[in-house]
Specification:
The complex is a heterodimer.
Chain A lengths: L1 E7 L2 E6 L3 E5 L5 E2 L9 E5 L2 E5 L2 H4 L13 E7 L2 E7 L1 E2 L3 E2 L6 E2 L10 E5 L2 E5 L2 H17 L10
Parallel strand pairs in A: 6-8
Antiparallel strand pairs in A: 1-2, 1-9, 1-10, 3-7, 4-5, 5-6, 7-8, 11-12, 12-13
Chain B lengths: L8 E8 L2 E6 L3 E5 L2 H6 L15 E5 L10 E12 L4 E3 L11 E7 L2 E7 L1 H11 L1 H8 L1
Parallel strand pairs in B: 2-8
Antiparallel strand pairs in B: 1-2, 1-5, 3-4, 4-5, 6-7, 7-8
The chains are: A mainly beta, B alpha+beta.
């Protein structure tokens, strides 16, 4: 599989390169009040508003701040949703043999069930689809209301 | 009569803490230059009231026969007309229950302003206002 190594603060992660639509340079994002904390705002991209993922927040670093743009922004697509991921650094895509992607063991499992080794670094493989799915599931539960008899399933 | 989907849309844009917000001009009945009207209007928010000389009272059109609380906004108001192609819905990932943001006005790869539903915004603000709490507790 093709992966794209990205750096957030001091953490290196890998993203499935097949999900990435474009790598943008420094890009300001626009805060949306009342948006979920992990999706604090939007960027404009190809005539659309694309949700910004606060990856530092998920990794327990200080959250993104409006007006402070990261060096790069990935635009990715998962579960039918476009998302923008501000990061500090992106390295060139690399091919990883499927057998070298193994269940998570040495890294912090934040939205990652697998990890891989690249250039002597072990990095978690970020499951972007899981982040999106969880948010959509939460918002569906919320919109069904407190009295709903449907149970959240995992 | 059907609404012309290709018609340009005009928004009244004001500043909020998070950036510029726009309300469809079609939802606005009139705007008062507010210093005196702020004090006399009922149901307006008491928190977050800007300096009187900067405040504007936005009175909304009647929607569905129900009267909604007017909005108080701050600073300079501007009227911005955009092409429908410049208006994008808010991504589902950014939507939370009770939120008032519904869309975004774009210009190329830049966000111009956030489009809000003024009725939901006024409800949310009124619910937060000390005036509303004091009415509830009375």
């Amino acid at each position: 599989m093709y992966i794209l190594p990205i750096r957030v603060q001091r953490i290196w992660l890998a993203v499935d390169a097949g999900l990435v639509q474009q790598i943008l340079g420094q890009r300001d994002w626009f805060k949306v009040p009342s948006a979920p904390a992990q999706w604090p705002g939007v960027i404009a991209w190809n005539g659309r508003a694309v949700a910004v993922l606060d990856l530092p927040l998920l990794l327990r670093f200080p959250p993104l701040q409006p007006g402070i743009a990261s060096h790069r922004t990935l635009v990715a697509k998962a579960r039918g949703c476009l998302l923008a991921i501000p990061v500090e650094e992106v390295r060139e895509a690399a091919v990883i043999a499927e057998g070298l992607v193994r269940p998570i063991h040495a890294t912090r499992p934040v939205y990652a069930s697998h990890e891989l080794e690249l250039d002597d670094m072990v990095m978690p493989l970020l499951d972007v689809g899981l982040v999106v799915a969880e948010t959509l599931e939460r918002s569906n539960v919320g919109s069904r209301g407190i009295g709903s008899s449907e149970q959240r399933t995992r | 009569m059907t609404k012309n989907q290709n018609a340009e849309q005009t928004y009244v844009v004001f500043q909020s803490e998070s950036g510029p917000m726009g309300v469809s001009a079609a939802d606005i009945w009139y705007i008062l230059p507010a210093a005196t009207s702020v004090g006399s209007a009922e149901g307006v928010l008491a928190d977050d009231v800007p300096a009187a000389e900067e405040a504007r009272l936005v009175v909304l059109t009647d929607r569905g026969g129900e009267e909604s609380a007017p909005l108080i906004v701050r600073g300079v108001l501007s009227m911005i007309t955009v092409d429908p192609s410049q208006v994008a819905p808010l991504p589902p990932l950014c939507i939370s229950p009770g939120g008032s943001s519904v869309g975004v006005a774009l210009a190329e790869d830049r966000v111009l302003f956030l489009i809000v539903d003024p009725y939901r915004l006024s409800e949310a603000r009124a619910a937060l206002s000390p005036m509303a709490h004091s009415k509830e507790s009375a």
